[in-house]
Amino acid sequence: MSLLRRFSGPQAQPTDLPVSPKLNRRDSLRWLLGGLGLSMGGLAGCETATTETAWLRVVNATTNYTTADFWVEGSLAVSSLSQGGTASAWLEVEAGDVQVSLRAAGGSSDKFSSSHSYDSDSSTTLVALGSLGSSTDALTFKYLPETTSAPASGLVKVRALHACGGQGPLNVYLTDTEASASDLADLDPLADTTVLEAMGSLGGFSSVDAGTLWRVWVTSEDGTLLFASHVDGFSLGGGSVVTLVVAPPGPTVGVLVQQSSSLVLANYA
């Protein structure tokens, strides 16, 4: 019998994405027992039978489905998740091989399904991306293990994922609120390489200051502006690890904080 639990944490605010680590499995059990007036000691004889679990959240970055359902081991886990960079609530699943399937919202047939192995107490973001029937940007899952070491408290590690099927190479920039679109030609993109070459490309991490208000910009390889976040900017909590997911439609950009919350930035380009 599969184990699947949903957890809805506090909603992230656009002006501040704090680091909010999840409780590990043992601490979660201790918290639950405390609320019942029990202790771990009282269950010492049963602890060896506790199921090993892992944490999973999903993102609908497909080009076909404005809303999608995600099924885990044959059970509906996430219903009508909107297209873009929005992440689901965290799900607790059994460690080991876990089958995840994507369906159109309310649909009865799998559009894509894949099994992946999850270590005990690990955290992973699954990004569904691509297009059903496409020969170049086919529907698939991209797995992002959330294992990167945290930076110092005054810094943030940031990288970008190209999850926008149908788009060619992309440049992703992170600037302060003083920058304008005309400045981008003189700046280096937020990636180890010059551009994120294709859908599924994941850039390396850059370290930025935590106390700055930031804007995200996305351009095509030839410099055409495709995305600009709000001029007022947004902040990132110190010591956090962040992945910017460039996703359809538009594109939009999701801000995923490792082992924590997420938000989607509106496009003002």
From TrEMBL:
Residues 54-173 form the DUF4397 domain. InterPro entries: DUF4397. It comes from the Bacteria. Pfam families: DUF4397. Residues 1-21 are annotated as: Disordered. This is DUF4397 domain-containing protein. It comes from Ideonella livida.
